[in-house]
Amino acid sequence: MNEMEINEMIIKCPACSVEGVAKSIMKEIEIPHFGKVLETTIQCPDCGFKHSDIIALEQNDPARYVIEINKNNLSVRVVRSQSATVLIPELGVKVEPGPKSEGYVTNVEGILTRFEDAVKKALNLFDDDASQENGTNTLKEIQNLKKGNGTATLIILDPFGQSNVVSDNVEISEIPENELNTLKTGFSHIEE
Ligand SMILES: [Zn+2]
C-alpha cells in the first residue's frame, strides 16, 4: 500500500471549537487491485476528538463482498466506505451506516475488534440477564475468531461499490434490486 500525504493543516476543532490545535491530514492511498482512495483524518489533542473518513475516488456499481473469517484471512485488507453495511450473520452482528459513520481501511481482525468494542459497550448499557448472556456469548465467539479458532462469514454490502476486500478469496457479486432498496446509505437515517 502506497501512501502519499497530500495536505496537512491546522483547523478549528469541530468538537470543542478550540482554534489552532486540531490537525487535519489528507492522504491519498493507493490500494492494490482497488485504486486510489482519499483518507481524511481530523485529530484534536485538546479534547481527544478523532474522525477519519475514506472517499473512493471513483463510484462503482452496488457490490456485495463475502469472505470467510478464518485464521488465514485475519490480515486481509478491508476497505469499508461510509455507506457500507458490515455483518457477520453467524454472530448476529451488523453495523449499518449512519450520518456519523466513518469510512476506514483496516483488516479482517480490525473489523472483529470493532465488533468486539461495540458488544462491550452494549454489555455496559444493557444489564438484563438475556442481554448479558447474549452479549457474553457473542464476545467469546468474536475473541475466538480473533485467535484464529473457528470460522464465520464477513459480508460487506455497499450500494456505491466503494468498499473492498483485497484477497483472492473474496467473492464479489451484485446486489439484487429488491435487496438494494432495503439497504441504508447513511444519508437519510439517524441510527448507527
Ligand atoms: Zn477539540
Automatic annotation (TrEMBL):
Keywords: Metal-binding, Zinc, Zinc-finger. Residues 11-167 form the Zinc finger ZPR1-type domain. Gene3D superfamilies: ZPR1, A/B domain (2.60.120.1040), ZPR1, zinc finger domain (2.20.25.420). InterPro entries: Znf_ZPR1, ZPR1, ZPR1-like_arc, ZPR1_A/B_dom, ZPR1_jr_dom, ZPR1_Znf1/2. One of its GO terms (molecular function) is zinc ion binding. Belongs to the ZPR1 family. NCBIfam families: zpr1_rel, ZPR1_znf. This is Zinc finger protein. It comes from Methanobrevibacter gottschalkii DSM 11977.
